[in-house]
Design goal:
CATH topology: Rossmann fold
Largest sheet: 7 strands, mixed
Number of helices: 6
Structural class: alpha/beta
Strand order of the largest sheet: 2-3-4-1-5-7-6
CATH class: Alpha Beta
Oligomer: single chain
Number of strands: 7
CATH superfamily: Peptidyl-tRNA hydrolase
Shape: globular
Strand content: 15-25%
Order of helices and strands: EHEEEHEEHEHHH
Amino acid sequence: MKLIVGLGNPGKQYESTRHNVGFNMIDYYVSKKKLGNFIEKNNGLFLKTKIFNEDVIFLKPLSYMNLSGEVVKKYLDFYKIETKDILVISDDLDLTIGNFKLKSHGSSGGHNGLKNIELNLGTQEYKRLKIGISNSKDIDTKDYVLGKLKCEEKEIIESLYVFLEKVIDDFLMMDFSILMNKYNQKNR
């Protein structure tokens, strides 16, 4: 069984913010594949389905970004999913808009959602799909990540979601090191 987690903040006021690209990627994928509707359980919105003969859970933690790890841990424990079988999708300030990076492990890079996942899982050994949101040195980081995407940024990221659909498909079927080799070189 695989667990694919999109990070973000719940609520209307956070829709279309830079920090919610994880939520939005999950929503795009589930909608595009017509997988069904999310159900609220254990402080998360989840959808359990089967793709390519693999049981898959899509999860959007509702605990707000800084406590995402608590929800992820509940789902891992309840469904007896191993850490090696999760993929966390998050925003990344160090990648420019339109870029992404797959990572098999590593530090949080200052991302509070990833920090909380590491704290609750007790490891940095989990897979990530990081979506670039760029950075602005003119705006406080908190205000920047919680700010709405500009029209041109939104267009770039939405076109990236179309491409990342294939990345998620391949995540479900291929060894992660092969996945990284296949896609990380494609960044612009």
